[in-house]
């Protein structure tokens, strides 16, 4: 019997703004460092030069209303670049990948928040990612008022 043991993992951290993704990612990063594991830490949107430019478009479009389909397509365009240029090459090298947000965020924000049909996001996910998925997703959850308290200018 030939059993192969996976040597590296693609880990994503998901959660709403202010829930502690950055703090949790730093903790996981310290665990990986202490264990002597080579890893790449990255984020979405972003992670590559092209994906960072797309991030700028997504976050700085206040002068002009961005259609929800445009927004969704930009997220997946950045994700395609990110996966093919950074995530898969790191995994192919044997490194672990720790990513702040991934496709789950599209389902939460574009489907749940913006009303884009789930099937449309699933179609894009299949087209862009095929069967590529994170090995582990850490979903952070907190009572709604706790994360808000951490954001600048919010008083509860």
Automatic annotation (TrEMBL):
GO terms for cellular component: cytosol. Transmembrane segments: none annotated. It holds the Pfam family Thymidylate_kin. Residues 13-141 form the Thymidylate kinase-like domain. It is an enzyme of class 2 (transferase). It catalyses: dTMP + ATP = dTDP + ADP. One of its GO terms (molecular function) is ATP binding. This is dTMP kinase. It comes from marine sediment metagenome.
């Amino acid at each position: 019997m030939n059993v192969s043991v996976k040597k590296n993992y693609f880990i994503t951290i998901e959660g709403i703004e202010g829930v502690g993704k950055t703090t949790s990612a730093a903790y996981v990063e310290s665990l990986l460092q202490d264990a002597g594991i080579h890893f790449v830490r990255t984020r979405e949107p972003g992670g590559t030069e092209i994906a960072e430019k797309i991030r700028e478009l997504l976050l700085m479009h206040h002068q002009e209303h961005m259609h929800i389909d445009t927004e969704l397509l930009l997220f997946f365009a950045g994700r395609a670049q990110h996966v093919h240029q950074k995530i898969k090459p790191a995994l192919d090298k044997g490194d672990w990948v720790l990513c702040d947000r991934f496709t789950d965020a599209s389902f939460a924000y574009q489907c749940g928040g913006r009303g884009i049909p789930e099937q449309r996001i699933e179609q894009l996910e299949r087209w862009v990612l095929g069967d590529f998925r994170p090995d582990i997703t850490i979903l952070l959850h907190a009572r709604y008022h706790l994360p808000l308290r951490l954001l600048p200018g919010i008083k509860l």
